[in-house]
Design brief:
Elements: E1 2-4, H1 14-21, E2 31-37, E3 45-51, E4 56-57, H2 61-73, E5 81-85, E6 91-95, E7 101-104, E8 126-130, E9 133-141, E10 145-150, H3 159-167, E11 177-185, E12 188-195, E13 199-201, H4 205-217, E14 224-229, E15 232-237, E16 246-249
Bound molecules: the ligand N[C@@H](CCC[C@H](N)C(=O)O)C(=O)O.
GO molecular function, one term: diaminopimelate epimerase activity
EC number: 5.1.1.7
Subcellular location: Cytoplasm
Length: about 260
């Protein structure tokens, strides 16, 4: 859900976010995105991201595409190249003729301290203790933290069991998003995501980006990859370490509404 905080002020405390995001008593959403005026002259807007649990976070790839659609539809800009401030740095968005949006997601972070992830050194694969068992995973920062697990068949992946255990694992001091990825070919993967602060969602753009970075680190993916998520598909382009990663996909309006205060939800 995207709010126009340019024409109006909104104070989003955790309880307000939880009430808005509630699937039965609220509007229902995975994230609440707040558009505000930019504080620096080289950006068009500021973009803030709140998870369904009310936590404010640094990145939302799918939200960035929705944000681009929103500001143009709301008449806040007619630009096709939009630069926005986020808590994790500026993002560049490009709106195409067919309505799809490319987001420059910046340079993926692989240094454990930048993710943040507790490990002595960067690696393509880490081994973590999980209860009586252990698990192999990759850890990637996209402005928010991601753990990536390779599975044989994404349909049967233990998303609801392993997802919350890894989200709260002490190796991720700021918790983490968790992706379960089935590599179909060097150019395609299927992905399900357990999101920090939201649970399993139908699609997570930043997790799709992180999955491609992980798969490339394992030597299983190439530069251009199509990621199939339960809610749709994304095209990811990443030339490799130290380079910017770009994500392209659609954004669609579900409905418009007018905020009348918390009493109305
Ligand atoms: N749950 C994420 C934030 C939202 C990510 C989003 N769904 C996306 O598309 O990137 C977090 O806590 O980092």
């Amino acid at each position: 859900m995207v709010l126009d905080g340019v024409r109006r002020n909104f104070l989003l405390d955790p309880e307000t976010c939880q009430r808005i995001a509630h699937r039965h008593y609220g509007i229902g959403c995975d994230q609440i995105l707040l558009v505000e005026p930019a504080s620096s002259p080289d950006c068009d807007f500021r973009y803030r991201i709140f998870n369904a649990d009310g936590g404010e976070v640094g990145q939302c790839g799918n939200g960035a595409r929705c944000f681009a659609l929103f500001v143009r539809r709301a008449g806040l800009t007619d630009k096709r190249s939009i630069r926005v401030e986020t808590a994790s740095g500026p993002l560049e968005l490009q709106v195409h003729d067919d309505g799809t949006v490319t987001v420059d997601m910046g340079v993926p972070r692989l240094d454990p301290a930048d993710i943040p992830f507790r490990a002595p050194a960067a690696a393509n694969n880490y081994r973590l203790d999980l209860g009586q068992d252990h698990i192999e995973l990759a850890a990637v920062g996209m402005g928010n933290p991601h753990a990536l697990l390779r599975v044989e068949d994404v349909r049967g992946a233990p998303v609801a069991e392993i997802g919350p255990l890894l989200e709260h694992h002490p190796a991720f001091p700021e918790r983490t998003n968790v992706g379960f990825m089935e590599i179909v070919s060097p150019h395609a993967l299927r992905l399900r995501t357990w999101e920090r602060g939201a649970g399993e969602t139908l699609a997570c753009g930043s997790n799709a980006c992180a999955a491609v970075v992980a798969g490339r680190g394992w030597g299983a993916l190439r530069e251009r990859v199509r990621v199939e998520l339960p809610g749709g598909s994304l095209e990811i382009h990443w030339p490799g370490p130290g380079q910017h990663l770009r994500m392209t996909g659609p954004a669609r309006v579900v409905f418009d509404g007018v905020w009348q205060g918390l009493e109305s939800i």
